[in-house]
Amino acid sequence: ERYGPLTDAVRIEFAGVLARAGRIGEAERLLMQGSPTFDDLRLLASIYSSAGQFSKAVGIYEQMLAMRPGDRDTLLGLADNLSWSRNYDGAARIYRQLLRGEADDGDVRKRLAESLLYEKQYEQSVNEFAALLHQSPQRHDLWNGFLMAAAGSPVLPKSCNELLDRIYQQRDRQEDTQFLKNLACAVAKHGRLVDAVPLFETVVDREPLNADARLQLADVLHSLKRFDEADIHYRKLMADMEPHTLRTSETTVHDTQP
User: Fold this and answer.
1) Which candidate, 224, 194, 229, 192, places its Cα nearest to that of 214?
2) pLDDT (tens digit per residue) in 35-65
3) CB-based contacts of 5: which residues, under 8 Å, 6+ apart?
4) Of 215, 153, 156, 154, which is closest to residue 181 (Cα–Cα)?
5) At a CB cut-off of 8 Å and minimum separation 6, what does 34 contact?
């Protein structure tokens, strides 16, 4: 062995030093010497995850679960790395399993809502975000997720429509341009085109080169039969964008997904 016999504690500490120095291969070999302990595997999973090697981290977490079935922290680590490797369905299954044990765990529910959003399961995602916001209405960090899910969902239950309206009423407090764009998409998706116009206009004023927002503004104006105003923005897009990158107005705001 290159490093000779080491105690478990020293081996783990030294592997961490190697990983932080970018010597991941050496850290891996050190931790996998002999029969790795649960703590060895936990550090190795963390190293892989930090390095963006999510598939390798998933494999290590699965080994850890074989050693300690049902361990909550291990299940959470597995779910997170499945999500980061874009296996959103697998991640969602584990998040739901964890919520069956602790239904009030808001952090896990947020991760579930996000995984469903990334998987484009918008109706399920919007309900999970809404559940979190009903508990903590002023958690602004959840607003964008809720709005993106709402913009993708074909229908909203009454409680989600009410939540959307409450967020809309607080729109003037927000300096976040992405929030305003998400809010515009959500209210437009659910028929509030007149409300969407000033939101999209604010986004375009702040970000004149935001072609997606300008196109959606033009489409909303066109739907409202404000053709002259819509035409200004369509012409602006045609002047500013290369022909091969120009989106057509066939994709209206009603079809736009976050």
Assistant:
1) 229
2) 788 988 988 898 888 889 999 999 999 999 9
3) none
4) 215
5) none
